[in-house]
Each structure stands twice: as C-alpha cells, then as structure tokens.
Amino acid sequence: xxxxxxxxxxxxxxxxxxxxxxxxxxxxxxxxxxxxxxxxxxxxxxxxxxxxxxxxxxxxxxxxxxxxxxxxxxxxxxxxxxxxxxxxxxxxxxxxxxxxxxxxxxxxxxxxxxxxxxxxxxxxxxxxxxxxxxxxxxxxxxxxxxxxxxxxxxxxxxxxxxxxxxxxxxxxxxxxxxxxxxxxxxxxxxxxxxxxxxxxxxxxxxxxxxxxxxxxxxxxxxxxxxxxxxxxxxxxxxxxxxxxxxxxxxxxxxxxxxxxxxxxxxxxxxxxxxxxxxxxxxxxxxxxxxxxxxxxxxxxxxxxxxxxxxxxxxxxxxxxxxxxxxxxxxxxxxxxxxxxxxxxxxxxxxxxxxxxxxxxxxxxxxxxxxxxxxxxxxxxxxxxxxxxxxxxxxxxxxxxxxxxxxxxxxxxxxxxxxxxxxxxxxxxxxxxxxxxxxxxxxxxxxxxxxxxxxxxxxxxxxxxxxxxxxxxxxxxxxxxxxxxxxxxxxxxxxxxxxxxxxxxxxxxxxxxxxxxxxxxxxxxxxxxxxxxxxxxxxxxxxxxxxxxxxxxxxxxxxxxxxxxxxxxxxxxxxxxxxxxxxxxxxxxxxxxxxxxxxxxxxxxxxxxxxxxxxxxxxxxxxxxxxxxxxxxxxxxxxxxxxxxxxxxxx
Length: 650
Hints:
The protein is an alpha/beta fold. Helices cover 20% and strands 31% of the residues.
C-alpha cells in the first residue's frame, strides 16, 4: 500500500472495522457442530445433482455453484437456473458458492489476476459485488458458503497475497454493509502451507477454512502422478494435515470444498472405495464440518484425464459403501437433518459509509489496516553455512540457524510489499543482524538475547521500505551477532509508528559493534539435526500393552497389544520436535491416537504391513512437541491395533 493513497478518514476506517467485527460476532452459522458434517454434492450441473438423489435416496444438505467474479453471477454449468431450483425445491439448503478471481481476469478488462485484485480492493468492482448481494438477497431460503477466490496461491498463478487479502476484505465489508444475513465467508487456499498462512485474511473475515481433497491429497496415485502413493507416504498429504490442524488450532470450522476420486482409482470398486475410506478419515480426524463431494462424470465436460467418472453410483459395490459410510444416520447431515440456524440478536446499527466509488477513472483505494504476511524462514534459500533446524516451539516447527559467520544468510524471494518487518528469532546473544533488499544494504535489525537458541523466541522490528516481489536477505556481516530465525512478517502499516529497529522503546541507534565477539566455535546456534530414536520397549506401558520379541524388530523387541481401549505407550522427557516417525507392524490398516502432555493431537493413519511381526513399515505424523514433553500412542474408540517397534522424534 502506498502512503500517498491513504486519504480516507480515520473515522470512516474505524466504522468499517467496527462494523466488520460486530457483524462477525452476530452472524448466523451453518456449522452443525463438532462430530457432524454437512454433506454437499457438486459440481455445477442440476441433472447430476438430481441423479445423485435418485440413485442414493439421499437429499444433500446443499449443492455447489461457480461464478467468475467479473460476471456478477454464478454462471458456470447449469448456472442461475440451478440456484433457482435449489431455492424453490430445497428450502433450507446450504450451498457452497465459488467467486473466482483467477479464471477470467480478462472478463473484467484486466491483464492479470493481480491487476483485478487491486482494482477490486480499490472499489472499481463494487457494482459486481452489488450484483452478488442482489442474488443473496433474492434467495433467502439458501445459505451461501461463499468462497471469495478459491484455491488461491502464489505458486501456480502468481497471486499476490496483499492484493488478495485487500480484495477479499473489500468483498466481505461490502456484503456485511448491505445487511444480508445468509452469507458465510470461506477462505480456500491451496494445500501449500506457506500460502495457507500468507494469504490468510484474518479471523474477523473468515467463517470457514477450506481445502480441496482429491486422490493425491490422500496419497493415491493418479494419471499425472503414477507414483504419487509412494512419494506421498501414508494416507494423507502432510500439507493437508498441517493446514487443517492450523485451522483447528485457531477455532476455524473446516470445510472440504472440492473432493472426488481420480483416475485410475475410479476404475475399480477397491480403488474407489479406498478413496472414500481415506476421505472419511480426513473428515473424522480433523472434525471437518462440511464436505462437498463432486459426484460427476467429468469426461462429459472437457476436463483433463485425471478427472473421470467420480459418481458413487458407478459401481453397486461403491454405492453400497457410500450409503454405509456417508449415508443417513452417520455423522453426515442431509437436508432435514440440519437444524435451521436460530436467529440471533441484531447488532446495534453502525453508520455505514457509502460504498459508491467516486465516478473517476482512477478510484481511490480503501486502505486496509496493518496487512501482515508471515513467511517461514525455512521456506527461503540458505547460503554460507546457514541451514534449517527443527524446533517444536518455532512457528512452523522449524527455523534457520548458523547465521553466525560472514556471508551466512537466508533469502526470501517475491516477498509482499511492506514498510515494516518483524523477525521472530532466538539467540543467546544481543546485537544486530544485517538486512539487504534486492541486494542493497538496508541497515541492521537490533535484537536482545532470548536466553537460548531454541525453545524461547522473541521478535525484533525494523521500519524499512520493501517493494512488491522484492528479495529480502538476512545476512551475517562483520560485527553482527548470531541469530536463529523463526519467521519474517511483512507489515503494510497505515500508521506512523517510530522506527523500532528491534529495540522496543529504546532509541534506534546501532550499538557499538566493537565489543561484540564473533560467535565462532561456541555456542553452536542450532540443535542436533539428527532424529532421536527411542525403542518402544523402553517406554512405559499401560492398559494391557506389553513387550514381545522379534528378531526383525530394531532392538529385537517391540510393544504389542495396543489393541484395547486405554492401552498405551508413553515416552517421557521427549526433546522438542516437530514430527514423529513410528516403525510398526499390523495386519490391518487404520489409525492410532496421539497425545502430547495429555492433550489429544489427533490420529496417525497407517496401512497394513501384512503381519504382526517380521514385516515393518514407517509412518510420519507432524505435531509440535515442546521440550521434556510426554508423548503417548494410545488405543481409543475406533482405533486399529498396531505393534510398535520404535519411535523417532524429529
């Protein structure tokens, strides 16, 4: 955001923020609650939706619609006629509606997706937003889960996070100001975790967090990636795990906005049903509260070969499996199962500024306060001896260490525009680290000791002008002090705060570097990178679990009878880690539960090894583990028996 554009009254800005927060607090919700999942059927064709009802005997809680934002309606597939059908024939439905920025920016007269986003944030597309508001208002029997942009990302389409956040918030603010109450707002990034954090519009603007879960997301191969099952490992992509847990930790309801079996898994009952089993496991493991399954023969509509016939009625064996697993009486909620949201008190009306843009060829942008984008340091490039390390207390479970000798650096590319940096760090020293922007010296960031290299983190702030898509580098130069970097936050700030320079309220002067010793051999600013292996037979056992002997096990023994409710293996005084690897044997496929310091961390999904002894496999589970924690593998209701050889904490 350019400072010269900030002309809007602070009173107006405060009113907008107040209105947004108040509306969020009083909004009705479609969330069915923990342990229940709305079942929606896609994709965009009325006939296929009706065919699902005929074949299964089930009426979904709602449908899915798609629209190009600049068209001002949901025009794809059966279009508005499908929405009118849902409104008339299925009152009380909850329909997921996609408002796409990425598919056709040319339809709005823009050369690329980011130009359209910036214009939307500036108010140039308020007429299109008003068209959608009119649709919502004229369909009061339908609740809309509105995906404002969907599958947003920087990797595949080069979308700018700041531009997206500003456009997303503009859409939300305009809809809330209109007074319509049948819309809930969905944030739907791709599964890449760095983008999940980078594009997040903020809790006051997000009612639901969504991901897409196709065959590759549950570790099945498809036509494009024939070896994906071995590359992914387990039964769920790690970025899906991490992203859904991220949303769960923040109390954001979870939604699978798009899901379907892909070719060639759809060509057999076994492959199709395996996908459905794994999809169901994702729902239950992360308490997903809405699921949209695309029950469609994609071949009729020109999609690539990965997307074929995903209709559950394709095989009798799959149709029966669907009705047993996803049918009536299960956790999945169909139309009539879902209670109508009870009305909540209307908020005290807040004066709403006129959203009508000045009829000028160049609209004045509405400023967005303090847009903050976090980038994990481990996603950057390291050089000069710097390298990553794992630490459960770090923001993303990892960071960059060995910024301790001249030339050691971490570089972040294509960063968002900002006028302030906030660096999360750990160090036993106080001093400074050097900063470069696009290769040019940008000064130093001063910091104080945190008392340790891991486990204890603080932040240091620096006011500096960073252009969009710049390369930012933290580099150790002569006179600097060693620092472990957790993350960097890029802040686009409309206030006029003084230059912090990492020293809080102290003056921003750089301390005399002469007494700062060069952190040569000691201390080493990084924990051991090697995983810590613990034999299961050395742990504490309870609830019937006991050791067994097997020459093929790592230490000649393992732990068995993890097979009844309450049976458990407990590892104490575990080092700070960000993931667990379990070597196991089991004649079954299923899941086992994990607790850290007595807090449930979810389930580890595993596949059968074919036997209880002799044949072993490994499975990984990502979760933050603090220093000296107690970690338990325990058998809970619905779990599957597993023999455990050893565990590695990484």
